[in-house]
Amino acid sequence: MISIEGLSVEFGGNPLFDDITYVINKKDRIALVGKNGAGKSTMLKIIAGLQQPTSGTVNIPKDMTIGYLPQQMQISDSRTVMKEAEQAFAHIFELQSRIDRMNRELSNRTDYDSQDYHDLIERVTDANEQLTMIGAANYQAEIEKTLMGLGFVREDFDRPTSEFSGGWRMRIELAKLLLQRPDVLLLDEPTNHLDIESIQWLENFLATRANAVVLVSHDRAFIDAVTTRTIEISLGRIYDYKVNYSKYVQLRAERLEQQQRAFENQQKQIQDTEAFIERFRYKATKAVQVQSRIKQLEKIDRIEVDEVDTSRLNLKFPPAPRSGDFPVIAQGVGKTYGNHVVFANADFTIRRGEKVAFVGKNGEGKSTLVKCIMGEIDYDGTLKIGHNVKIGYFAQNQAQLLDENLTVFDTIDRVAVGDIRTKIRDILGAFMFGGEASDKKVKVLSGGEKTRLAMIRLLLEPVNLLILDEPTNHLDMKTKDILKQAIKDFNGTVIVVSHDREFLDGLVDKVYEFGNKRIKEHLGGIYDFLQRKKMETLQDLERNNNVGSKSVSNNSGDKEISETKLSYEERKELQRQIKRLEKAIADNEKRVEQIEAEIQSVEEQLASPEGASDTQLYEKHGALKKTLDEVMENWTEHSEQLENLRLQDL
After folding, report:
1. Domains of the chain and CATH, by start
2. What band does 564 get if pLDDT is binned at 50, 70 and 90?
3. Dist. CA 230–CA 245, nearest whole Å
4. Compositional bias of type Low complexity: which residue ranges (predicted)?
5. CA 196 to CA 219: how far, in whole Å?
6. pLDDT tens digit sequence for 89-113
7. Residue 616 burial (CB < 10 Å; 0-12/13-18/19+)?
8. pLDDT of residue 592
């Protein structure tokens, strides 16, 4: 589909890419990975045609469509959510407008027997068939399904986009891209503005309904669920693995280990050969063997060990001064804006040393509660901050608040006080801003580098309550792992607002769920919480189907422990349903392969001069596309049902 050949990019004489070549195939699901500043976003911009390489070419077929979602963009605020999303179907409106114009012309003409009149009728007929083929009648339902999958509710559809935060407006742009169904989707950190439920919906959409996908994401669980190919960008080169990220990490380690062993064995062989040559070089009786060894040495294909990027972030939070036993106590806390209730009657206590997560859909009040704790906004109820609590706060938009005209050094120099000012260069070096990097302007930094720079502020004075609002946005995998370990080692209290399941896994031991204007406490880690959420959904289904279940309340108010008892007969029936669904899914997958083969055959015919004018062929193509969508919908529905039944069978 798309071939990248001999691609090189230089910035100020420094190479970013050096003679890179690879191909993006139809239906590829590619994760671009690498450290911050390696060039992942630059690669997407070049493929999208927004940036030109220093040398090399990107060959894109003439009729191929490409959809690109950048990390940040300027968004129009002149329409409602629905009207903005409808822009994805501008081609439908344009075609409908053309049909209307031709129909008006037909009604005004009287030369019914002329060839021109009959040609006009034929053009109207062809346009109407094309309108039917591209599914114009279903676009409204597609818009609603996609917007709701990304977290919007029907009440939002008629609201102007100007009422929404930047994160929600990015969701609208993402919805438009998904609705356009481009041949290649280029997504740069698409999960940064999504909550966990929306991320899971997007995972399913990309895995089952998208065409080719190339994405940059630092959400390991997300890229593992979506991608099947990993391209690593490191030190100007690429390494292409036909596996998902987790398998890539394993294969990469094995490759480097094997390469190192082969290099060491070859070096020993070379040293032994050189030693033999040197020892017997001047002995006439060994002249033949020496010449043979010299030729052998010249023929050796020297093994090179791939240069490994050893730059590493050195992150360690200062020791936390001791605080009171209960850094945060909330009693009946609530927040309203006019008639809009964000949350109400929140009662919880965070103990010293606890690491907790705030999770839930965007707009349910996570960042709002953080602002209440910080004293930035008013609230109802009582919120007590414990004795000697010193808060270190990383806001969600912290990186965007940096002055882009300052250098990295000046950014820290302006906030550092006392003896810290003498150690700024050392601190910057520990955060991978050593040497010339400390003199870079903030505006030329990548998103991850800006986040790292903003994170340094937290280290300038000791704190004992860390509040981190989406700290992993834009951070690469290694940096996220280092941040996660630093938080685990931190001996103070931590509140993390995050949608990154892999980051939260093993980090927090309590989850506060925000939803339905309430804040609900769940003991255990993030996957315990997600499993419980699935079980609660299943139990709702079981109650609707009169399957016996019971709910036991304990003394913690909103906390519930639910149990489901299945009899022998019920379990047998469950197994029968699972087998039936597995067969249905397998049948769907075979049918999808058959339909895709038929579509490809029709498209090949349409590409010929004869096929291009065959209206029946267009009708067949449209019918096949519609059937494929229906089969994919069935596959998705059956897969979700199967997952739910397997959870019951645990």
Report:
1. 327-390+462-563 (3.40.50.300), 404-461 (no CATH), 568-648 (1.10.287)
2. very low
3. 6
4. 544-556
5. 11
6. 877 777 788 888 888 888 888 888 8
7. exposed
8. 84
Q: What is the pLDDT of residue 192?
A: 82
Q: Which of 50-54, 300-304, 306-310, 516-520 has the lowest mean pLDDT?
A: 306-310
Which residues have C-beta within 8 Å of that of residue 358, sequence separation ≥ 6?
A: 366, 369, 370, 495, 496, 497, 512, 514
Alpha carbon dihedral 80, 81, 83, 86, in 10-degree steps, equals 170
28/186 Cα distance (integer angstroms): 12
Do 440 and 464 meet the contact criterion of CB atoms below 8 Å apart? no
Residue matched to tokens 């129009």: 76
Give the confidence band of 468 by pLDDT, cuts at 50, 70, 90.
Answer: very high
DSSP code per residue over 320-389:
PPP--S-SEEEEEEEEEETTEEEEEEEEEEE-TT-EEEEEESTTSSHHHHHHHHHTSS--EEEEEEPTT-
Taking the C-alpha atoms of residue 202 and residue 208, their distance in angstroms, rounded to an integer, is 10
Q: In DSSP terms, which residues pair with 521 in a beta bridge?
A: 512
Q: Cβ(429)–Cβ(469) under 8 Å?
A: no
Edge to edge, what strands does the sheet with 14-24 contain?
14-24, 2-11, 55-59
Secondary structure letter of residue 635 according to DSSP: H
Of 376, 503, 398, whose CA–CA distance to 457 is shortest? Answer: 398
| Pairing of β 560-563 and β 550-553 | antiparallel
Cβ distance 529 to 359 under 8 Å? yes
Percent of the chain having pLDDT more than 90?
A: 26
Strands 380-385 and 328-337: antiparallel
Residue 621: its pLDDT value, please?
78
Nearest to 156 by CA among 167, 166, 144: 144
Contact 508, 525 (CB under 8 A): yes
Which residues does residue 237 pair with via DSSP β-bridges, in sequence order?
A: 234
Measure the CA–CA gap between 385 and 388, rounded to whole angstroms: 9
pLDDT at 136: 57
CB 151: neighbour CB atoms within 10 A? 20
Q: Mean pLDDT highest for which of 28-37, 41-50, 544-553?
A: 41-50
313 or 326, higher pLDDT: 326
